[in-house]
Design brief:
Strand content: under 5%
Strand order of the largest sheet: 1-4
Distance between the termini: 82 Å
Shape: globular
Number of helices: 27
Length: 723
Amino acid sequence: MSENNEKVGLETFHYDNTTVRNFLIATTIFGIVGMSVGLLVACQFVWPEANFGLQYTTFGRVRPLHTNAVIFAFVGNGIFAGVYYSLQRLCKTRMYSDLLSKIHFWGWQIIILAAAITLPLGMTSGKEYAELEWPIDIAIALIWVVFGLNMFMTIIKRRERHLYVAIWFYIATFVTVAMLHIVNSFELPIDFMKSYSWYAGVQDALVQWWYGHNAVAFFLTTPYLGLMYYFIPKASGRPIYSYRLSIIHFWALIFIYIWAGPHHLLYNALPDWAQSLGVVFSVMLIAPSWGGMLNGLLTLRGAWDKVREDAILKFMVVAITCYGMATFEGPLLSLKNVNAIGHFTDWIVAHVHVGGLGWNGFLTFAMLYYLIPKLYGTKLHSQKLANVHFWIGTMGILFYAIPMYWAGFTQSLMWKQFNPDGTLVYSNFLETVTQIIPMYALRAFGGLLYLSGVFVMVFNLVKTARSGKFQPSTEAQAAPLMKDYKPEKSEHWHRRIFEWKPVRMLVWSLVLVAIGGAIEIIPTFLIQSNVPTISTVKPYTPLELNGRDIYVREGCYTCHSQMIRPFRSEVMRYDPADLEYSKAGEFVYDHPFQWGSKRTGPDLHRVGGKYPDSWHFYHMLDPTSMSPGSIMPPYPWLFEQEWDKERTPAKIRAMQTLGVPYPEGFDQQAVADAEAQAALISKGLELEGIKMSSDAEIIALIAYLQRLGTDIKNVEGVAEAGE
């Protein structure tokens, strides 16, 4: 055999299947874990007692656990399984280093384990989809570099001349995610598991949603498009529909996507020019997104008879369809008139889960059904069970999304409804919440259906694996790549310029994605008029700063916004006395910002002084005592644990480093100042018949809540710079 190979110039090598299998097992396990936590979260909206009275299982703590588990554990491991399998076969070579593959796999699982431990403990940076604290952020960056090095060196030593379209998306994913993660994760450590965001207020919000939107774009979308371009032709036995369309899809998508982040901040305190850029590029995004969707679906032309029989292709068709729906809805939601309706409502939850459950989930399931039989050298145990999974999963998506759309429209209509005399019809925010609890129950049922389908899949795949024998490697043969190869002038320009030069493709991908981010972010930092200062806005007191840290730790931003938009319905609801919407200059000392992205409870930006201290005391002890019908859980541990005196000086020094104008040497008196303010609050509570130690966390939290929005209240002639 070897003599014959030498005669025809073929080389024999072996693909690594072990790493692929390991990632497939991990994606399945963490899929179950992440979806189970999601089901718990959904149930807590209907039965608040489902946190079991524990501080580690409240919605504010487990919601970040759910999102991180699904995005980085379930989808992340799915990406790596698909990339390791397809890249070797597209490059006709084994992965560059088995050692790097092992480091990547185990390093990623350790990161996931660290997230699963720290997030329920309240160790969070308080930034959506980027909640993990600074040591874990560093580990993510290092493991991502290991992955990128292994991937890129594999591409360098390939035996195929040209890079197939899937590899373009893998390259863009690597460089863009690295850029997003590093820029968004700039933070100043206080100690081993506590830090403050380097950015503040408006600037922090812009960087965060530049990251948050593009984490969806370049972690949940571009790598899965690469997998789509590989697995659909393989599963259907048909070539991709259009090579030219794939070129347009790739370059247009990675250039346009990066600009769209500001559409998450419309009608907020972000500069208008940045909001407008986000809108324009979001609308433009429809074209490349639907180009990719059509390229995938049209690949199946002539194979619809096979689709009707093959569960794998069914999953793929629904996945691509959900991708198309989500990428139409995203630009739709970026229109200001639509965003005014949808933002802060459950419409956004439905939108996100159409993409997550449909696009990412179903394509991952299709990949699992395709790969496990191949890795074990056998046939799928049961096509019927795979079809059962498909229909249960599809019904799960429908039962999840439709009630959430209904809930979102109900919320927005109720928030904005006025009486003939100009007063709000539903002045009590809780009236909105109680109306949509049946929708939350249906959402939980949909999640249960979807998770049940996953268990059907696991049974099917375990039976499949047991009927075969795992093949740690697959033998393959290919001719070596000629070192002196140069493309012919007659070849397509894209082949000549990019497809045989991976370094060139990497550099140009980085340039294209960096342009949009730089143009949006840099002026917001350098031009003062983008964040006008307000003279009456002062830094938080040491006690308020500790209260704010407790607020972040408990994940209060997951249910409450701190952003009153310039709508009559909002200023009348949240600031009826002064009718002040939120200004950019009010957030200059917020590290991180706390604008939120969902209102399950009311906005809190003007809650300071609205209620007496005793109201907040009883509300945190038993929310229903102050707000009958509330679905907020009680927080009894805040009355038992003490606020953080030990780290208070370090917190003040960190804030000074970040530019907060505390007086020199203030860190030495910060604890005494905090104790004095806490004693006043405790004494005030005692006058109302409440005995509570001034060292309790609830005292610090009350101090923070009573400060919110008070810097510009009842102050005449508040001037913003540039006015």
